[in-house]
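Section 4.2 – Deliverable D4.2 (structural model, holo form)

The reporting period included a commitment to supply a predicted holo structure for the target in complex with 2-acetamido-2-deoxy-beta-D-glucopyranose. Inputs used:
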Amino acid sequence: MSLLRLALPTLIVLLHLSSVNAARRHDYGDALRKSILFFEGQRSGNLPPDQRLKWRRDSALRDGSTAGVLKVTVRLAVITGGLDGGYYDAGDNVKFGFPMAFTTTMLSWSIIDFGKNMGGVEANNAVAAVRWATDYLLKATAVPGTVFVQVGDALSDHGCWERPEDMDTLRTVYKIDQNHPGSDVAGETAAALAAASIVFRSRDPRYSSLLLSRAISVFEFADKHRGAYSSSLRKAVCPFYCDFNGYQDELLWGAAWLHKASRRREYREYIVKNEVVLHAGDTINEFGWDNKHAGINVLISKEVLMGKADYLKSFQNNADSFICSLLPGVSNSQVQYSPGGLIFKTGGSNMQHVTSLSFLLLAYSNYLSHANKVVPCGGKSATSTQLRLLAKRQVDYILGDNPLRMSYMVGYGPRYPMRIHHRGSSLPSITAHPGHIQCKEGTRFYLSPNPNPNVLVGAVVGGPNRSDAFPDSRPFFQESEPTTYINAPLVGLLAYFWAHGA
Ligand SMILES: *[C@@H]1O[C@H](CO)[C@@H](O)[C@H](O)[C@H]1NC(C)=O
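Output (structure tokens):
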């Protein structure tokens, strides 16, 4: 019997049963702590004394000082002291600005909606994870009219299997400016800075206003000089974080976050004026570092559902139809599920879709429940409880309720991925092997059948294939590589389920 063909009422019963019958209850608090700890393993730059993942050390301290950008760098050095810091996106050692900004936006959204569910200690750890990114994004946007969007030549980096601490590959710096626009990466960077300004509003008001004023100027640049960054930076960013989907969504997304953060009328007017021009309703069942459409509509719907913005009702209609597209058994259902019940989309690193779509399900479920509303899906309707249970089913799959009975979060539960595609995790640590390990010397560790020596606690990998199978092998990077944007939305999901239980 296929889950996809069941009518909604049957599905609700099944979801209820599966949570009641689950062999073990998950320790969401443990998973939450680990999901945040993971970000410490991705840190670039000068590590602070309270760094908890001890097998990592300082790396890439001279980022931003390569010869190619000497002129700008001299100016930048005066203003900011270079481009050290920030996060490596995944299992390599490149700092890609586009996914780093999206990660920051989602970590911030996790805290904005679910920070109250985290408890003081984990809320502080999550906020520190945001600040590690925003400190960097402030440097990357310190020169007006310029955004530094990447450090590291991806081809040079991917040609080596090296610890970040040993890295001697090209640290080329890439930027956008008015002659080489990038409304995608600049729009997402503005969204990240604006969202983070909300996180810091009461915690650190001065930092918060700095973030907000920077968000405003970066958005202005993004909107005034329109274009996709992959036009001028194709060789550097494609196929890794090429803008496949266009920059229009990031402009609306940036405006939506600026509206939420600043309450300025100009952003509300921008959203209303540009809704159609910038295709707010397009490709609605996607949400990730490239495509923000579903996120825009869910974010803006909150205000409509709170009765504060009836003129934005069309965004709620879009959000409703997005939600219907995720629910198995409704007429316009479009999203596929694996036989074991995991949301599955083609293209690799499937877990990024699972966590970001589940985040939207849970956030929307909360907005609906406060407004006492349901989602109309064809002739049926979906309740906030159904949305929440579907999100929980996805989180539980990640933590071990799946055909292989394994957790896809490293270090959580009795069985988890041991050979993740991650340079730092798979090579011996600096403590174990103080000598330099050169580019090609790393290959034998990459190809080794042994488990990784350094446990990257909390990393969630790309996950199983369409048939719920998982190779647990480094060369299968689509399955075994963790990324920061898989974890960022998961932080919010885990906080909620920790606070609210099963
Ligand atoms: C998933 O992986 C398993 C084991 O490697 C393989 O047998 C199966 O064909 C794969 N399924 C798909 C749909 O790729």
